[in-house]
Amino acid sequence: MLDWLAYHADLARFAQTQLFFVGGAPRSGTTWLQQMLGTHPEVCCRGEGLFLNHLAVPLERMMEQRTKVIQGKNRNIFTHTDGYPVPTPNETEYLIGSAILIALRAQTAGKPYRAVGEKTPENVFFFPRLQRLFPGAKYIAIARDPRDVLASAWHFFAKKTLKGDETAAKHAFIKAALPSLGEGARAMMTFGERHPQDYALVTYEELLRDPAPKLAALFRLLGVSDREEVVADCIAKTNFKTLSGGREPGDAKDGAFFRKGVAGEWRATFSAEMNREVLREVGWMFSTFGWRE
């Protein structure tokens, strides 16, 4: 390992890279979008860093516990002195930001990239905090018809554990998932309104219909080449047939991560009553994102 000063200086240099973060609901196309971005020769975007739930939150708890122990020592043992200073919120943020930079730099495996990004679905809830840590970063969100999100999630996550009545299980699954879908969509919209210059939103349906202009716009946001041949190559390398191992869009395979690759799948999974349930809870999203009810 480098000595601390050299390591820190190296990390500070890496921080000047164009960083970006991608988020959206699970099963909304976040991984497909990540693959499209990461195929660009000037972009590094792969895997999931899990920076919110498996880094920031545990680190905060650790620092809170350390604060309590220090305060107890100060109160019970070091009453004759000033005791030891307790960690500040800024110190915690510094540690979180540094840990994220270390992870992003490791992701590049030492190769030079003009843009380095990370995708975790729940990033949409973490965007505001990431923006405070990295004010020069860019933020990309993807949205998908919530009925298709739920249908895809049902087949990938829930169906395999089904016990008992399938209709009742689907209703329960929808009811449990809808609040998070609504909160995530509102988080996307709010962040985009506050930081329009550093933010882009695409929908799964737009990427299915005509991905080239949307992907080119994202590359421009990241400051990398948007040449037609580069965009076309990224699309060709990440189409459904390639990612699914040879299946055509619409050729479903339950349990596969890339299951079907089409819009409107929910009709084969959910009833009219279930559709009404979704529309009652998150129907406001449809006009916002351009979906048909």
Q: Can you walk me through this structure?
A:
The mean pLDDT is 94. α5 (123-133) runs parallel beside α7 (166-194). The protein is an alpha/beta fold and 293 residues long. It contains 13 helices and 5 strands. The chain is globular. It has a single domain (4-289), classed as 3-Layer(aba) Sandwich (Rossmann fold). It has a 5-stranded parallel β-sheet, sandwiched between helices.
H/I helix tally: 13
Strand content: 5-15%
- Spans where pLDDT lies below 50 across 5 or more residues: none
CATH class: Alpha Beta
Going by CATH, the homologous superfamily would be P-loop containing nucleotide triphosphate hydrolases
What does the radius of gyration come to?
A: 22 Å
Roughly how many Å apart are the termini? 56 Å
Shape: globular
Q: What would CATH call the architecture?
A: 3-Layer(aba) Sandwich
Structural class: alpha/beta
Number of separate structural domains: 1
